[in-house]
Structure formats: structure tokens, C-alpha cells
Amino acid sequence: MIDPAMIFEAIALQKCLMATYNKMVVKLAPHILYTRHDEMFIDAVTTERDGRPPRELKLGTFKLAGLSEVSLLEEKFEAMHGLYDETDSKYKGVSLFAVEPQSAAA
After folding, report:
1. pLDDT tens figures, 2-30
2. Which of 27, 84, 90, 96 could form an S-S bond across to 31 if both were Cys, CB 3.0 to 4.6 Å?
3. Which DSSP category does 69 fall into?
4. Alpha carbons 24 and 22: distance in angstroms, whole number
5. For residue 49, what is the enclosing H or E element?
6. Predicted confidence (pLDDT) per residue in 30-62, tens digit
7. Is residue 30 within 8 Å of residue 40, measured between CB atoms?
8. Full-prediction pTM beyond 0.85?
9. How far apart are CA 21 and CA 94, in angstroms?
10. Would strands 24-36 and 15-21 be described as parallel, antiparallel, or unpaired?
């Protein structure tokens, strides 16, 4: 079971997470923690997949229950507001914690 406090810390301090997802080691920049159908999810940018950068940076959805061997890294990330939109309707009423909104960061 993943410690939600680690996810909150990663989002609050904009620190990357290392985890195994679908038998692949990924480095994630988590932007938001939310619920859907009584399950917890994070939307995160994959910055590394099996030790290599992805072909393109994009926001992915990860079910917390599907992540294993999760660890918090000291490596920081910049919020990618071009990929992540905190006003997206899928987050309305289900958002638990997110990176600082773009308007507040400016």
C-alpha cells in the first residue's frame, strides 16, 4: 500500500516519484491526486521510462493501486501547466491535492 503522505509531499514540494507501473520503472512528476469511482489516481508527467526519457512529455493517469515500489526522489520538477490544466472538468469535486495553480505561480 502506498503512503498517501508521500504523494502529498511529492506534489507539494514538486518532487519526482520513482515507481514500477505495468512492469516498467518510471520517474513521474505528479501534478494532481484525485478520486474516480472510489479509487485514487494521480495525473503525472512521465519524465523517464526504464531509464530513458520518453519520446514526448505528456500527462498520464496512474491508478495508485497499480503503482508499486514507489519512492520519493529529491529531484524537483517544474509544474508543466502546458500539459496539466487544473481547471479540467474531470477534476471538479474530486481533486484531493494539486500543484500550485498557474495563476498563483505567476
Report:
1. 888 999 999 999 999 999 999 999 999 99
2. 84
3. E
4. 5
5. strand 39-49
6. 999 999 999 999 999 999 999 999 999 999 999
7. no
8. yes
9. 23
10. antiparallel
